[in-house]
Design a protein that fits this description.
The complex is a heterodimer of chains A (about 210) and B (about 450). Chain A is an alpha/beta fold and about 210 residues long. Chain A contains eight helices and eight strands. In chain A, about 30% of the residues lie in helices and about 15% in strands. Chain B has a five-stranded parallel sheet. Chain B has about 450 residues and is of the alpha/beta class. Chain B has 15 helices and 19 strands. Chain B is globular and about 55 Å long. Classes of the chains: A alpha/beta (about 210), B alpha/beta (about 450). At the A-B interface, helix 4, helix 6, helix 7 and helix 8 of A face strand 1, strand 2, helix 2, helix 3 and helix 5 of B.
Chain lengths: ~210, ~450
């Protein structure tokens, strides 16, 4: 997994609530065996006309935002389907950080598995960052996961807080399977306890 | 004695292997995979990992399967056929219990789980599909995950999770005639909003919920994700235990009695605290239908299109002030993990009474066993006589990735769970409603208030 420590970049404003994963990556792109190359299909229906040409009004088609690395969005971002193609598509486009008042739980978890940092912030903070984002390429944001700070273009610092374990994994580019496998003994003990307490849960096999 | 705990607290506490900061390593009792889970198997192979507990994992194809035939060769494209065959290969290689396309037990994961007894009260269950919340209807903590998490479960039978907050939604009183569990959950989503339960596990309670069958409860918990809930839960009771008893993978005999004794201790203790609580009056709930592009855009069928969300109205091609019952429909879909169980099909069939469909209507049962049951009851003949299409089990037009979609600008009355832009095909306009409302819409060619005919 790609690590995330500090990022300075352009933030694209997407002032919509309930951005769902069907919007982020529609179903026709879920048949690929590959996890890369999905960036072209990101926000497919909002981004392209029926003939495949770009819709000039859509934010990521505007010159200032074509290389955006940060997205500022409305509440409940990533709702709907559990498809991990949503963070894969965002990542492939180049988005590494999403700022929103709230995130759908499954999408939120999927981001951390793929080196994307989702930061939930109060609505009034998002409103200020949305204004910054609307200023385009001249208004870059800095996201520092080590210090857990966002620096606005005017220098104002906004503090945020990410769970320590998840922060550790993102900062070091670790995925958690290796860490969990080191705890195999604890899982063995759990299974042994469950076998006694709830014997019907263990399936005949193993 | 410890302080009163909720149903959720009890399940969570009994599944924590260890904690690290705000994250807990949670033991996963049951894991279901489907034909969209191939990345997890690819990653498993790429990392040289084995499946830790094959017998606690289950697989059936549903998202991509054809519904007009039972061979992978019937798939819409070679690419889609490949998805179904890849799952078969992955399951065979890893020794996971499988219900392949030609097995009568195959079906939509959230229909198959409860039907087979994979889902039991008090356990943890995950699946790479957001509607895994369905299984909470039996008192299990069940939630959807992404494919990296599928991989984590395959390899370790655990997941790292942050403890969600809790919310209790009580629906008190009696439902009026013509009002179904689907209407209840649409009313709940409209009430608290599409993001209203984000970060929470919702326990549905109250006399109207207790009065529901397990099938009705599955419909309610299924759509808890449409309010953003991490999971939905309903306290297991005698209705649940009677449903579970005798299922192929449920404990049998003495083991069942022992399980039952523990399951009876699962319901929330009196006085247990929830982070949030809200109550709905069951008697005030009408048959519901969505008018917009989020499940929260639901209104009673006797309402008019509101003057709100202009982008949604433009997509839906609707004008504020139009009566919902004046909206003409081009196509009807009866199926999906929300409404494809036998009671749903009975409710749809009961609306027909010899009438013919005015628009193309597709009925897709939730599993091969549901299909067989419906045929044993003669429901298939009623559907066919009405001009409906009667298909094999699968997700079909709910998500459309098997190639079954509507055409641009078509207006579909659908018993599924999502009315997002493009969900049932590019430009397709979806109205969510109950099976009875969908069948009535099929024979009238427009949205109908079934209270006028039921």
């Amino acid at each position: 997994m790609q690590k995330f420590d500090k990022l300075t970049g352009v933030a694209a404003p997407l002032a919509m609530i309930n951005v769902d994963t069907d919007m982020i990556i529609p179903k026709q792109h879920l048949k690929t065996i590959k996890r890369t190359g999905l960036g072209k299909a990101l926000f497919d229906e909002m981004r392209y006309e029926a003939d495949g040409s770009e819709k000039p009004d859509f934010v990521l088609n505007q010159p200032a935002y074509r290389k955006a690395q940060i997205l500022v969005a409305g509440a409940n971002f990533g709702c709907g389907s559990s498809r991990e193609h949503a963070p894969w598509a965002l990542l492939d486009f180049g988005i590494r950080c999403i700022l929103a008042p709230s995130f759908a739980d499954i999408f939120h978890n999927n981001c951390f598995k793929n080196g994307i940092l989702p930061i939930p912030l109060p609505q009034e903070t998002i409103d200020k960052l949305m204004d910054d984002a609307r200023k385009g390429a001249n208004a870059q944001l800095t996201i520092d996961l080590e210090t857990q700070e966002i620096v606005r273009p005017d220098g104002e610092v906004i503090k945020f807080r990410i769970d320590d374990f998840r922060r550790h994994c993102l900062l070091n580019g670790l995925d958690d399977i290796g860490l969990t496998m080191q705890k195999g003994g604890d899982v063995d003990s759990y299974e042994a306890r469950q076998k006694t307490a709830q014997p019907w849960l263990a399936m005949a096999q193993d | 004695m410890s302080s009163p705990r909720t149903l959720f607290d009890k399940i969570w506490d009994s599944h924590v292997v260890l904690s690290r900061g705000a994250q807990s390593l949670l033991y996963i009792d049951r894991h279901i995979v489907h034909d969209g889970s191939f990345h997890a198997f690819n990653m498993l192979r790429a990392r040289g990992l084995a499946v830790r507990r094959p017998a606690q994992n289950f697989g059936t194809p549903d998202h991509y399967v054809p519904t007009h035939g039972r061979s992978p060769a019937d798939a819409a494209t070679p690419e889609i056929r490949g998805m179904i065959e890849t799952l078969e290969r992955n399951l065979a290689e890893t020794g996971i219990q499988r219900y392949p396309l030609d097995d009568i037990r195959q079906g939509i994961v959230h229909v198959v789980g409860p039907e087979q007894g994979i889902t039991l009260p008090g356990l943890t269950l995950v699946c790479g599909d957001s509607h895994t919340s369905s299984h909470g209807a039996l008192g299990a903590f069940a939630f959807g995950i992404g494919q990296s998490e599928n991989l984590h479960v395959l390899a370790t039978q655990t997941l790292w999770q942050t403890r969600p907050r809790t919310m209790r939604i009580a629906v008190e009183g009696r439902l009026a005639a013509g009002v179904s569990p689907k209407d209840v959950v649409l009313a709940i989503v409209a009430h608290i909003g599409a993001g209203g339960a984000v970060g929470h596990v919702v326990e549905f309670a109250g006399s109207a919920i207790r009065a529901m069958s397990v099938e009705g409860r599955l419909t309610v918990c299924n759509m808890s994700i449409e309010a953003g809930a991490r999971a939905g839960l309903i306290a297991p009771d005698d209705t649940t235990f009677a449903y579970v008893a005798g299922r192929p993978l449920a404990p049998q005999g003495e083991a069942f009695d022992r399980a039952l004794a523990q399951w009876r201790g699962l319901p929330s203790d009196p006085g247990a605290a929830f982070d949030r609580e809200t109550t709905l009056d069951a008697a005030a709930i009408a048959p519901m239908v969505t008018w917009g592009t989020s499940p929260e855009d639901a209104l009673p069928i006797d309402a008019v299109v509101p003057d709100a969300k202009p982008q949604a109205l433009a997509y839906m091609g609707l004008v504020p002030g139009t009566r919902l019952t004046d909206i003409a429909i081009d196509r009807v879909f009866i199926g999906s993990c929300t409404n494809s169980r036998i009671e749903d099909l009975r409710a749809a069939a009961a609306m027909l009474r010899g009438r013919k469909a005015r628009v193309p209507t597709l009925v897709v049962p939730g599993s091969g066993l549901v299909k067989a049951q419906a045929e044993a009851e003669g429901l298939d003949k009623l559907f066919l006589a009405a001009g409906f299409e009667w298909r094999h089990a699968g997700c079909s037009m709910c998500v459309g990735i098997n190639g079954e979609t509507g055409r641009p600008l078509e207006r579909i009355a659908s018993t599924s769970n999502r009315n997002f832009e493009g969900r049932q095909g590019k430009g397709v306009r979806t109205h969510l409603l109950s099976p009875a409302m969908a069948a009535a819409a099929a024979v009238e060619g427009r949205l109908v208030d079934i209270r006028g005919i039921a």
